[in-house]
């Protein structure tokens, strides 16, 4: 079960001892970030679904258009944990920060030469940690919505199928008036337009994530004020020994 760190602050006290973030610590912190991003990700995909709805015949509801994004949402749910854990542990935070089995001078000082993977270090470098979580979330959504990916192709086909339901009716009318059976050019153009517009819409995911979270992921421009959860997350991290 995933728990948002926003709901965990009242339950934890800072422990006396500090050791490496391992096992339950890694799982808990990874799931907390994924849970925290549930609403921002849903909001971005709702925005995308609304734009898809606007380009389809009869403008279906956003809920219906959100269903066309199911290949992306399903793949995100499946892959989010592994990607987030790897991005944090060990891509940036490295266990007990030992070098050849020996703690470097100053460890467990979080400013030791190797970035310690201790709760104290995670809190010390929280400014970096929140960017890691944001960039990983943005990256996985962007990759799933990139033309050529399996998920993109599935979304494109589902959207085309929805559009073609109306196009087929128009095609039958055209065929009745055109006994030669040639493909109506306006229908081919409409399909090409839908593909072009869908590509443009899905390419907005990174910028929508930045707008939703209140900044970019470069670590300098803005502190991601709407996707930080700094106080509750620090308290949650420090609840682990």
Count of alpha and pi helical runs: 10
End-to-end CA span: 21 Å
Query: How many structural domains can be distinguished in the coordinates?
Result: 1
**Oligomeric grouping of the chains:** single chain
Classification by helices and strands: mainly alpha
Gyration radius from CA atoms, angstroms:
23 Å
Number of strands: 0
Which percent range fits the helix content? Answer: 55-70%
Portion in beta strands? under 5%
The average pLDDT score comes to 83
Uncertain stretches: 1-18
| Major β-sheet annotation | none
Shape: elongated
Textual characterization of the structure:
Keywords: Signal. This protein is mainly α and 241 residues long. It has one domain. The chain contains 10 helices and no strands. The protein is elongated. It starts with 23 loop residues before the first helix and ends with a helix. 29% of the residues are buried.
Layout of helices and strands:
Layout (H helix, E strand, L loop, with lengths): L23 H13 L1 H18 L6 H7 L1 H19 L30 H6 L1 H19 L5 H28 L7 H18 L2 H9 L16 H8 L4
Helix pairs in contact: 1-4, 2-3, 2-8, 2-9, 4-6, 4-7, 6-9, 7-8
């Amino acid at each position: 079960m995933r728990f948002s760190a926003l709901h965990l602050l009242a339950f934890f006290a800072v422990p006396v001892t500090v050791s490496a973030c391992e096992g339950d610590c890694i799982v808990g912190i990874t799931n907390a970030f994924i849970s925290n991003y549930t609403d921002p990700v849903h909001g971005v995909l709702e925005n995308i679904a609304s734009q898809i709805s606007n380009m389809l015949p009869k403008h279906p509801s956003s809920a219906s258009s959100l269903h066309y994004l199911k290949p992306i949402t399903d793949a995100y749910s499946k892959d989010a944990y592994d990607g987030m854990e790897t991005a944090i542990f060990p891509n940036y935070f490295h266990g007990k920060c030992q070098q050849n089995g020996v703690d470097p001078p100053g460890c467990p000082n979080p400013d030791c030469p190797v970035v310690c993977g201790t709760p104290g270090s995670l809190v010390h470098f929280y400014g970096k940690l929140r960017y890691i979580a944001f960039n990983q979330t943005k990256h996985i959504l962007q990759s799933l919505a990139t033309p050529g990916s399996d998920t993109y192709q599935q979304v494109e086909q589902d959207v085309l199928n929805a559009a073609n339901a109306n196009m087929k009716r128009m095609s039958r009318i055209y065929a009745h008036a055109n006994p030669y059976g040639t493909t109506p050019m306006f229908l081919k153009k409409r399909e090409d337009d839908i593909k072009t517009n869908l590509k443009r819409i899905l390419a907005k995911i990174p910028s929508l994530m930045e707008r939703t979270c209140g900044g970019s992921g470069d670590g300098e421009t803005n502190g991601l004020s709407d996707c930080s959860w700094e106080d509750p997350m620090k308290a949650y991290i420090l609840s682990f020994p």
